[in-house]
Amino acid sequence: MQLTRPANLVTAIADILAGMAIAQFTFASFQPSLLIVSTLGLYGGGVVMNDVFDAKLDSVERPERPIPSGKVPLASAATMGLLLLLLGILAAAMFSIESGLIAFAIALLTIIYNRFAKHYAFFGPLTMGMCRGANLILGMSVIPESIERWGLIALLPIAYIFAITMISQDEVHGGKKRTLYIAALLYLIVLIAQLIMAQNHGNILFTVPFVVLHAWLIGRPLWNAIQNPIGPMIGKAVKAGVISLIVMNASWCVAFGLLPLGLAVLALLPLSILLARVFAVT
Question: Can you spell out the DSSP letters for the chain?
Answer without folding.
Answer: -TTT-HHHHHHHHHHHHHHHHHTT-----STTHHHHHHHHHHHHHHHHHHHHHTHHHHHHH-TTSTTTTTSS-HHHHHHHHHHHHHHHHHHHHHH-HHHHHHHHHHHHHHHHHHHTGGGSTTHHHHHHHHHHHHHHHHHHTTSTHHHHHHGGGGHHHHHHHHHHHHHHTTTTT---HHHHHHHHHHHHHHHHHHHHHHHHTT-HHHHHHHHHHHHHHHHHHHHHHHHS--HHHHHHHHHHHHHTHHHHHHHHHHHTT-HHHHHHHHTHHHHHHHHHTTS---
